[in-house]
Amino acid sequence: MYFDVIIVGAGLSGSYLARKVKELGLNTLIIEKSKGIGGRFSTKPVGRGIADYGCQYLKPKTKELSELIQSLENKNLIKKSNMLQYNEAFIAPFGMNKIPQYLSLGVSTLLNQKVSSIKKTSNHWEINTNSFTLKSKMLVLTMPINQVCELLKVSDLTIPALPTATYKSFYTITFQNMDAISSKPVLKNDFAPWICNNFLKGLSIDQNIFTVNVNEKISNTLLNIEDNKKHELISRHLKESGFKNFSFYNLHYWKYAFTEGQNNIANYFNENNMLALCGDSFSVGQADGAVVSAQKTYEQIRDIF
């Protein structure tokens, strides 16, 4: 199949770009290796409720993200939250994954398809996944920068001076607890630098459902022990943290790019070979960088099509 634009990655940057490009009338496809749209904007069912276990909130620093938030507020997909007390934050009451899901509505999407290699011919790109070979005039990579570099390497392609990001491994726990344990939506202790009650945060649920990020030291320990030992260790620390009656417990392993405070190039765009890169490792990083770089990429695509 042939497309005008293929976008690899269905996180915030990829879904935002896909929506804008589709408005140009271009035949657009998103390819996503996971089974759902969202990327780091991840939300999972927990019991009869939900928990955000990736990006927890938005705190805009740029005009581009502020404008996106305003448009999402008008759709009731975003609202202000007092979860950070003295700092303004925005949350998605139905789950953070609803943001990229909404943005990608109407765009053709292939899920559960990991791109294994890419190849530039004289007039198009060939994109190979675990099931398909697809063709497009323009190719945009929006995955985490380490995955972009791996794909370029196996495809014998080189792009100099790309942004870098430090990836840290850690575990996130989601569960339901009988008690709120605190009137504050966000807590921390020696075990977990982030303990969030999704109900008090403002999600549209009626149970105390928690997201807990385990500290780096214990996460490294968890990486090297068997599953039954993992659960014993986590259960002990949860009880010591005040969670006496928890259920629907799930453990998630993450590699997350810590890019706060960065100021990288806005994006990468090569009109000659019709290849672009954008995402949260570009510009100022995180959600702002994802949107700023996608907006810049959209404007460049608009100018050449």
- Net shape: globular
Number of strands: 17
| CATH level 1 class label of the largest domain | Alpha Beta
Please bin the fraction of helical residues: 25-40%
User: What portion of residues belong to β-strands?
Assistant: 25-35%
* Fourth-level CATH superfamily of the largest domain: FAD/NAD(P)-binding domain
- Major sheet: 8 strands, mixed
| Residue-averaged pLDDT | 94
**Structural class designation:** alpha+beta
Return the CATH topology of the largest domain: FAD/NAD(P)-binding domain
Number of domains: 2
What distance separates the N and C termini?
19 Å
Query: Could you give the order of the helices and strands?
Result: EHEEEHEEHEEEEHEEEHEHHEEEH
Rg for CA atoms: 20 Å
Output the number of helix runs: 8
Give me the CATH architecture of the largest domain, please.
3-Layer(bba) Sandwich
Q: Which regions have little confidence, pLDDT < 50, spanning 5+ residues?
A: none
Summarize the structure.
By secondary structure, the chain is an alpha+beta fold. Helices cover 28% and strands 30% of the residues. It folds into 2 domains: 2-41 and 97-165 and 264-304, FAD/NAD(P)-binding domain; 166-258, Polyamine Oxidase, Chain A, domain 2 (Alpha-Beta Complex).
